[in-house]
Structure of FtsX-like permease family protein:
Amino acid sequence: MNSWRVSWRNLMRKKWRSFLTLLAIILGVAATVSAFAMVQSTQSIISDYASQGQGNTDYYVFSQQGWTDTDYINQLSEEHVIEEVLGQSDQRLILDKEIWKKENAQLDVQAMGINDLENAIYDIIVLDGTLDGNGLVIDERTAELWNVEVGDEINFSLHAQETEESVQIQVDAVVENTVLLTNPQSWEEAENNEWHVFIGLDTLQAWTDTEGQAKQLLVLGAEGISHEQLGNHLRDFFPAEENMIVQPAIVDESQIATGFEELYASLYVAGGLSLLISAFILYNTLYISVVERRKEFALMKAVGYTPGQTRGYILREVFILSLMGTALGLGVGVLLSYGFMELLSEVFTNVLYELKIGIPLLIAAGAGLVIPIIAAWVPVMKASNTEVTDVFRETISKSERKPTFFLIIIGMLLLIPGFFWDDMLAFLPLFIGIAILFPFLFSSIIWLLLPVSKLLFQRAGKFSARNLNRQKLRTALTAAILSFGVTLLVFLSSMALSVSDSMSKLIEETIGGDVWITYDDSISEETFHTWQDIKGVKDAVTYSASSLLWHVDKEEKDMRVMNVNSVTAERMENFPVFQYNQGYEQLLRDLEESNTIALGREAFEQWGGDIGNTLTVETVDGTRDWTVVGLVDTSRNGGYVGFIHDEQMEKQLGFNDQNEALLLAENDTSSSIKTAIISEEDASLATVKTAEEQIDAFQQQTEDIFFILNVLIIFGMGIAGIGIANTLLMSTIERVPEFGTMRAIGSTKWQIQKTILSEAFFIGTGAAIIGSVIGIGIMFLTSVQESDFMLDIPFRISWLSILLAFVFSILVSVLACILPARRAAKVNISRALRYE
């Protein structure tokens, strides 16, 4: 216990140094917690939306004719292999304009009619009211925005069966927010996102004159019945002449999110950067502390301490700091995680999230305790190897050992993966390589900036340059950790520009038209001709789009598939839904062959085969092998999509509805066309989006995601500021006699402060220059390398991020030097001259 008290007293002897080191550990641990929590929580959100959106459904059953007889619900419920069967239909409703006084786009409601809301398939938690009626069921968020409660009546406008009428329904229950009802968080968001509610199927059938019918049946198998057994039983149950389709409910997260692996890797790198900077700061602090206390360690050896006892002496101090820093950092990390997740939830509107913090806390706690010990190992070994004769030496510091040619070779080798490895994790060896080479680079930066420093700080600038060269290794390491943040900031911001431009171009070239319309049912001839009469519409075309079940590595997946052969190559030129380097005509001819498909890039990558190979798909006739005849680039479903011939869509997938449409618009008429289509209040209309809206939404989403990443990086650069303050503070303490001499020969306090300020200028500006150059270099090499990414990565430079990097680096350095500069200016001349 006494040895722990000694270690604690040693920490208290250098309060500021200990405090800054502790702060660095706190922030490093906090950044690690938040980065891992964001990854874990985002993965959980995607998984929840993929799985809970289908509830516990095992199979969907629907008719090729469009409607399914609800008598099957009772018949199937008596089968021993089935636990639950639900009938479900959807219907578009419009909130009463006279009552709500909102824009048309804000009043769209998608009602999900279910015959029994108290079921084993959907997990619905009731907050108020009951689910045993046929009334309206809304979530908590919607009840608050609509300002309604159980028992209130709500009026809707209903368009069905070529009639228009007003209907009224009572709110039966308010339920907990659920992914089944993804609703806008405000009336502003409702302009581009429809409302979702539950309603009794009987009520919906009565409103739409579809008594005894449902769009589809949802089937849950009994306990102990395998998925395959249930599927076979259902296929045998329905007579062949009924043309019923039995489709397994597949949870395929690729339908919701593609390319998130890069986001996760970026978050890991940003969080790891903060922890790495904390480790550098701890290493620097301990290294200087050991050099300062060399006489103390020599005396300990002289009185009988062994090297092991000396190591334990230092390690206890490290452990105290890491334990306190980790404990406090975990608390700060939890708060940061909530803040970042709020930002992320605003990026992906309507997202419900639950913060996953358990594993991130364990990882960060382990890293917070272990990494400081690793970082302290070299200084600890240096302390244990102190010789007894050191006690008789006058000086307390040695000249720094010059980096060797061997180190230069190692540093350059470590740079290679970062420049040529197409993975964010390659930044780890890159940063280590930069740290090794930084002393050489920093000498050049000092020489380059010397004229500017002399101009700004006069003689103090020249004096500080000489001092920095004298302590080059220590100062260079301090600047290096700041430059890591600058490198990431410049690279990721430039990458955001490149991805945004490239994706916007891909959306523009492959969305297929100026206005994109999707329908729940088949688009009628009358509706199609109505659109052609809208002012500004130059041309229109319809497509079929359905889901395709396919197998990858013995795993069932669910991909979107579109037909393309009902249009000519000329039509494809006008309504391009994909890009194909070898020309549309050849691909369309290849797709005319039976059992062929062209894949979007994301689907192609997940499949992992080559052109000409076959993939296995589920058709109405069972499992079939289709030949992949083309790889295309498209923005549709993030590239997780396939394109097939019309005949295959109808015969093998049992789908022949033309449920998507693309319109070409005259200049600046897309918005008015969209408004005209929405005003028709067609009950089967699902979505209407203009190309501009698609591009704007993607650009905004990209900006928001990279903003979150940049906030994490700037957080890490802030930690680097602590390291600069620590280094300058230690340098000031070591140079007390020097400052005392300067004061004795006539230097003013301001001249002393300018010396420290000038050193901070060299560190901040040097880090910004080197970090920016490396960031631009990585961006250039990324753009010229062949990548598996679905987009071309053109070379772009974010000049704004470079400006921010310079401003922030210099600002952090200047703020970090305030305390050391004040201390240096307060040096007592007589005491300083007696120092040592």
Summary: The longest strand covers residues 82-95. Confidence is low (pLDDT under 50) at residues 395-400.
